[in-house]
Amino acid sequence: MRCFGEASLVHEITGGMGLRRIAVQDKTTWLALCHSCHMLIHENPGQWPKSRQMAIKISRDPENFDLDRINYLLSGGTKGHPVDLADIAKYLEPV
């Protein structure tokens, strides 16, 4: 995703999982987006799986990327790993 607008909204990668209260306080779940890109994610969830959102996170905010933490939240507090690096790699853009 090449976002050319001003990043004026914060999307919580795990926010739609009933975890918004936790996600809004956790930088590992934050994804800064312009309004248009934020709406794309919400209006087209099938095209924007968590792995794709996490690819944007790792590209734009690597210092706050924590796969284990996001997976912990996505799995509802269990130690499962719903998303792995191979899932994310499919969406990474070449540098």
Characterize the structure shown.
The protein is mainly alpha-helical. It is globular. The mean pLDDT is 86. The protein has one domain (9-89). The longest helix has 11 residues, at 50-60. 39% of the residues lie in helices and 8% in strands. Strands 1-2 form a two-stranded antiparallel ribbon. It has helices at 20-23, 35-43, 50-60, 67-74, 85-89, and strands at residues 9-12, 30-33.
Supply the key terms.
95 residues, mainly alpha, 5 helices, 2 strands, 39% helix, 8% strand, globular
Quick recap:
The chain has 95 residues and is mainly alpha-helical.
Q: How are the elements arranged and paired?
A:
Layout: E1 9-12, H1 20-23, E2 30-33, H2 35-43, H3 50-60, H4 67-74, H5 85-89
Antiparallel strand pairs: 1-2
Total helical elements: 5
Give me the count of strands.
2
Helix amount, in percent? 25-40%
Question: How far apart are the first and last residues' alpha carbons, in Å?
Answer: 13 Å
Strand order of the main beta sheet, please? 1-2
Q: What Rg is obtained from the alpha carbons, in whole angstroms?
A: 12 Å
| Number of discrete domains | 1
Largest sheet, in brief, is: 2 strands, antiparallel
What is the approximate shape?
globular
Arithmetic mean of pLDDT = 86
Proportion of β residues? 5-15%
Q: What's the quaternary structure here?
A: single chain
The low-pLDDT segments are: none
What is the string of helix and strand elements? EHEHHHH
Q: Class by helix and strand content?
A: mainly alpha
